[in-house]
Amino acid sequence: MEFVKCLGHPEEFYNLLRFQMGGRYKVIPKMDQDSLSSSLKTCYKYLRQTSRSFASVIQALDEEMRHAVCLYYLILRALDTLEDDMTINTEEKVLMLQNFHSYLYEPDWRFMESKEKDRQVLEDFPTYCHYVAGLVGIGLSQLFSASELEDPLVGEDTERANSMGLFLQKTNIIRDYLEDQQEGREFWPQTVWSKYVKKLSDFTKPENFDLAVQCLNELITNALHHIPDVITYLSRLRNQSVFNFCAIPQVMAIATLAACYNNQQVFKGVVKIRKGRAVTLMMDATNMPAVKAIIHQYLEEIYHRIPNSDSSSDKTRQIISTIRTQKLPSCQLISERSHYSPIYLSFVMLLAALSWQYLSTLSQATEDYVQTGEH
């Protein structure tokens, strides 16, 4: 249970409780399902099935922009799925991608010939990330500007918009090493991992964990180079809903990289940030000073864990030192400060836990009663 995991982190426990009790709607407004057309309801159903995390941040957008981004994401996700299917021969795939726009007007169109995916070895890491994520960042930025919610510069600066997408994509690829291995996919760039092992799958062997961590740290260092662009991009945003939409995934990404850095668990199981921490980040990342504080916090975590023996340690220190010159604040996040004694906090947490248990029991009883009445 997520509340139990947060017992050693009082502020996370408090924020998780506050989030569950309705605080989420300050960051992600509740969508009025009744006002949606049947087509839009279908789109949001597919969106939730495709990506729960992205479905959540989309709801942070103003209504008209929300619908446009929902459609944009679904179309790009379909294209990405088609592009990633290595069982389709290149000629057929190119033809399908070129004609994909026409399939959108054919409700019954399906592609049923896909077989089990072949293993994909990625050699051109930057180009791949650009096409699957950088272009998404560029397209969204141009959409924000075209809607006049943001200044034209946001859509015109394709380099920084590209970095927004690349930072997220690289983070996902780094974190998902083991899951991708288990499902027969390989997205870590061969130009990097081949310096350490003969096959990417060799990193799952305990005798190679030290080499695996060195490769992991090198990839994380590479991803950190996008942070200056991310800070510049976010600092230009003026619309609150757009800012929340853009900032929340970025702070989640830096937190994920900090959790993965120099961590053998990436090659043994799943590395995730606690839900209480995730909720805290979502509720904090609503303004630029707070976002800079979050970035600073996790960069310092990485910096203090850099092993001297690591092959990329000098580069990691260098990029973090460069980012520091952007005058990131060194203060702790407000939500993570505690002005109360441990005894008082323990009492409050115990009271909150008992209250939550009572409310959950009451809610379940009410739901059971309603379901019984419906039958």
Report the β-strand fraction as a percent range. Answer: under 5%
Derived from helix and strand composition plus strand pairing, the structural class reads mainly alpha
**DSSP, total strands:** 0
**CATH hierarchy: architecture of the domain at 170-330:** Orthogonal Bundle
Distance from first to last alpha carbon: 31 Å
Could you name the CATH class of the domain at 170-330?
Mainly Alpha
Biggest pleated-sheet summary: none
- The CATH homologous superfamily of the domain at 170-330 corresponds to Farnesyl Diphosphate Synthase
Mean pLDDT over the full residue set: 83
User: What's the SSE pattern?
Assistant: HHHHHHHHHHHHHHHHHHH
Number of helices: 19
Identify low-pLDDT runs.
329-340, 365-375
CATH topology of the domain at 170-330: Farnesyl Diphosphate Synthase
Could you estimate the helical fraction of the residues in percent?
55-70%
Protein architecture, described:
It is an enzyme of class 2 (transferase). Belongs to the phytoene/squalene synthase family. Pathway: Terpene metabolism; lanosterol biosynthesis; lanosterol from farnesyl diphosphate: step 1/3. Its EC number is 2.5.1.21. With 375 residues, this protein is an all-alpha fold. Helices cover 67% and strands 0% of the residues. The chain starts with a helix and ends with a helix.
List the helices and strands and how they pair.
Elements: H1 2-5, H2 10-27, H3 38-50, H4 52-58, H5 63-84, H6 90-98, H7 100-103, H8 125-146, H9 152-156, H10 158-175, H11 177-182, H12 190-193, H13 209-224, H14 227-236, H15 240-260, H16 275-284, H17 288-303, H18 313-324, H19 342-374
Helix pairs in contact: 2-16, 2-19, 3-4, 3-5, 5-8, 8-10, 10-13, 10-14, 10-15, 13-18, 15-17, 17-18
